[in-house]
Amino acid sequence: MIECRPRAAPKPSLFWSRGTELLTNSSRVRVTPDGILWIHNISRADEGKYTCFAENYLGKANSTGHLSVRDATKITLAPSNADINQGENVTLQCHASHDPTMDLTFTWTLNGVPLDLEDSAGPYHRVEGKENIGDLLIVSAQLNQAGIYTCTAQTVVDSASASAKLVVRGPPGPPGGLLVKNVAETSVELRWSRGYDNHSPIGKYVIMARSSLSSQWKKMRTDPENIEGNAESARVMGLMPWMDYEFQVIASNILGSGEPSMPSHTIRTQQAAPTVAPSGLGGGGGDRNELIITWTPMAREYQNGDSFGYILEFRKKGTSPWRVVRIPHVESSRYVHYNDSLTPYSPFEVKIKAYNRRGEGPFSQIAVVHSAEEEPTVGPSSINATALTAFEIQVSWEPVQQLSANGILRGYEIRYWRQHEREAAADRVRTAGLETTARVSGLRPSTRYHVAVLAYNSAGTGPPSPRTTVTTRKPPPNRPPSNVSWKAEGSLVVVRWDRVKAMHNESAVLGYKVLYKHEGQTALKVVDKTKTSVNLPLPKDNGYVVLEIRSWGEGGDGPAHEIIVSRDSGTGMMVQNKGSSTLFRRPLQLLTGSLLLTLVSLSGL
């Protein structure tokens, strides 16, 4: 269509020519009365100059233009319909031909909405190729990417389009319209409507529920046990009475499980009598003339109804009638029975059950609980105390008879105090069990102590035993061995020291102890008081040995003199004497052990 709209008055006559040829109406060419030239089914043969002539009785005018014809844009390979599973990749092809003098571009739309092909992180990507190829790659297709894809090949003068349908199959959509009906004590009925199957038939449904006690969804037992895909109702079993629940339904097919339905409205199951007994039944202890019974309060999921409480029954073992007590508090966990005539540590049979508005539950198994204990009525006998060192004694005694303990004998308490102190200020040590000997440490040297032993149970201590006395030994010399030296002899090192002499107020030296520490292992060597040397193995390579030398005797061990012996990379030896802060050397050579270098640095050398 080429327009010719001259300005003239009166209205001019119009006609067209191509070159020198006057154009007349034909099957392909038509000139309208208002001067518009129409050329149908155009081809390259129609190229050329076209002139519009206009004239009236006042004059003439003309205008010439040039018509260029280009090759039409055509889709040579249109995209094909595709059917894929969710998560798969798919390529939609689109090839086109066009006039080579013009640029060609491809665009894609999904259901008429243009796609962003420039986002490298998005699901849509151009397939790199020749200019006339505009294939579309869809990565990890999702359900919402199904629809009609249209490819458009476009130049500045025309365009061509072709479309294809993409079907994405996936797990079903969420069921809808979930209703809860016919609520009973331990079951409810659910009804729902089918969701979209996403082109793969629904195979089954799963019912999920959560109670007010938990935020976790849990798969529920149903009737029928397996809910087929053509069902839209089921009865949920195994619920707890008097409990708040929400429900969800999940559909699945061969491609997986879909999103759950919206949660149902919250319902509360009907009340029922308790079905389990309280646990943890026991007791004991307390004050004189008391019987204390304890249990674990029932959790909310086992109460089954309101107006909840406990029924406790107890009787003295060997008697017939049960004493019944109702305890109308769900949080209660103990009951105290007081009776002036209760004998200490008497056995009682007890049992307990729960009740609520709908009835009573089963009794627990019978437990035996003892009334409160009383302190033991007799004390140990034959007390003996022996000094082990200047700081420690050993005490022994004859045990009391269990029947005199007025309960369960827990152990013994040792009381000890210095001769000039009052017994009320005595220090105390308890045994954890029924041992009849014990050591008491942390005492003062050369000190006379009084010692007594008492039996005890949960009610307290009994009367003390007859007291005995013991005197701790003199303290050991408070000086470590001095003038410590060493000498390497082959694979051994000989360590020597001066003899330690005891003062008049110190215990005699009976010998010496040498503690040998090497590579995490420890060995103790004890020598007679007549010896003042010891042979020890040298460390291999660049290792080191820590030695502690101390005197010992009846009063215990004296303070230690510590040295570190280390071999260097040659034949030299090195000793750090910690006791006197003096460093002894053999002929000095280059030291290669990093730990040894650290010791030298610490010594300030």
From TrEMBL:
Q: Which residues form the Fibronectin type-III domain?
A: 174-272, 277-374, 379-475, 480-571
Superkingdom of the organism of origin: Eukaryota
Signal sequence region: none
Q: Name one GO cellular component term.
A: plasma membrane
Q: Where is this region: Disordered?
A: 457-484
What keywords appear on the UniProt entry?
Answer: Cell adhesion, Cell membrane, Disulfide bond, Glycoprotein, Immunoglobulin domain, Membrane, Repeat, Signal
What InterPro entries does UniProt report for this protein, alphabetically? Answer: FN3_dom (IPR003961), FN3_sf (IPR036116), Ig-like_dom (IPR007110), Ig-like_dom_sf (IPR036179), Ig-like_fold (IPR013783), Ig_I-set (IPR013098), Ig_sub (IPR003599), Ig_sub2 (IPR003598)
Any GO BP: axon guidance
Q: Could you identify this protein by its name?
A: Contactin 2
Provide the organism lineage as a comma list. Eukaryota, Metazoa, Chordata, Craniata, Vertebrata
